[in-house]
Every structure is written in C-alpha cells, then in structure tokens.
Amino acid sequence: METVTPEPDPGKSSPPLDDSKNETILVQNDGALNDSTEAELTKISLMRALVESRDPSSKEVDDLMLRRFLRARDLDVDKASTMFLKYLKWKHSFVPNGSISPSEISEDLAQEKMYVQGVDKKGRPITVAFAAKHFQNKNGLDAFKRYVVFALEKLCSRMPAGEEKFLAIADIKGWGYANSDIRGYLGSLTILQDYHPERLGKLFIVHAPYMFMKVWKLIYPFIDDNTKKKIVFVENKKLKSTLLEEIDESQLPEIYGGQLALVPIQDS
Q1: Could you tell me which residues belong to the region Disordered (predicted)?
Q2: Residue 264's beta-bridge partner residues?
C-alpha cells in the first residue's frame, strides 16, 4: 500500500445516554468497559464525580462517553472534564431538542453529498462524503453545522453495541473553488474534535486534486494530533487495494469496486 500521511506542506457504569437521543444506546454490562485499562477506570470515576458536581445533567451520561473525552485529552481528568462540560453547554444551546430534524437542514440534504453503507472489518459504519456536491449554505454557517450534527447522529445510530467509531471516505473528485468552504470545513472539524471526540476511526481522502491541497494547507494546522494520525491520502492507482485493507469487498461501495450501493445519509 502506498499512502501519504498529510503534512502541512502540500467495571459497571451509570445508566447509559450517548451523544444524542437518536444514537444507539450502548448497553453497559460487566464487559462493556473490558478494553479499559485500570488507569482509565479509575479516571472515569474521578471525572464523573467532578463533572456531576458542576453539571447535574452529567449523571445521564454513560461511562463510555466519559472515556472518549478522557482519551481525547490523554487521560488528563481536568482537561477532559473541561472539554466535556464545554460540550454539554454547547449541546444544550445548539441542539436544545436533543437531535436535529431533517426539516432544519433541507438545503444541505438536497445536495445529497453524504452517504452511508456497510461496515469495515472492525464493525465500524462507513460513510462517504462527496466534496464536489457541497456548496456553502445560503442560510449561514450554523445551518451547515446542524447538518454535520445530524450526520454524526445518523452515523452513531448505526454503530453496533460496543462500537464507538466510524470510518469515513472523503471523495474530492470534481472539487473546485466553487465548492470551497473553509469556514464550513473548520466548523465541521470543531464539532468532530471538540464535541464528538474519539468517534472518527479513520478517514481516507481519495481523488484529491492538486488545487485542493492549497485549501488543505489552511485547514491542517487546526487538526489535532490524534485526528491527524487517522487521516490517509490514497493514491488513485492504489484506491481499491487500500480500501480493501480496511473493508471487505462485500461491504465496499460499488463506486470503489465493491458490492454495495450507497444510501443517502438521511435515508439510512
């Protein structure tokens, strides 16, 4: 496989409640946190006590969610708690009803730029986003951000019990400056990194034209180190073979030589 990592230059837990009421609730039995280290289990308890003392609504959140925030901050309880409390404040303000209705994001849904289908070899749901179908939302940045939240809710709802991540393919074929939306890209990045940490398992960027790299250089400094490690630029000649390392052919979208037709995310 020839891939290029992007560089700037070119125990038991409390009752479960996940990122939104539309997400699949992860049933936490004795084995739910089996892949946690002793340090993680200890720090989950410390973090829970801290955040519950500052925001009582934290009691509704499950241990898996707290663990994601801890892992995003290298198990630093104070930093993870600050990050989590910021998330709660944002969620109560930006998504007051707990989820985004399709009627709120009709303009972005009409572009049919995001699809889902199948799971990878680890059981993570697969999403494909077509950058050339995206145009700046006429209703402003917040309208597009609501679309991003809706899409993440849909992806999380497709996760089987015990799975917390998804795999994404960003297809840049046909992208031009008319599709460029740096504010939208950065807004999406904030929602993913700050409010849905440890949800992205891997991101393949395919069919990236040269001029896209100019925009990528502007975005790259805002990507945190944990996220950077999950991003792979794929050469066109190695596209199918690279994807097959993570995805069985039976689960690979037809457009990449697999067997599954893509489904618009709103229909998933």
Answers
A1: 1-23
A2: 115
Place of tokens 């002793």: 38
Cα atoms found within 13 Å of the Cα of residue 175, Cβ hemisphere only: 24
List of domains in the chain: 102-267 (3.40.525.10)
Cα 184 vs. chain centroid, distance in angstroms?
A: 15
Q: Phi first, then psi: what are they for 189, rounded to 5°?
A: -60, -40
Contact yes or no for 261/126 (Cβ under 8 A): no
- Are 231 and 5 spatial neighbours (Cβ–Cβ below 8 Å)? yes
> Is 85:116 a contact under the CB 8 Å cutoff?
no
CA–CA distances in Å: residue 263 to residues 22, 168, 171, 192: 18, 14, 15, 22
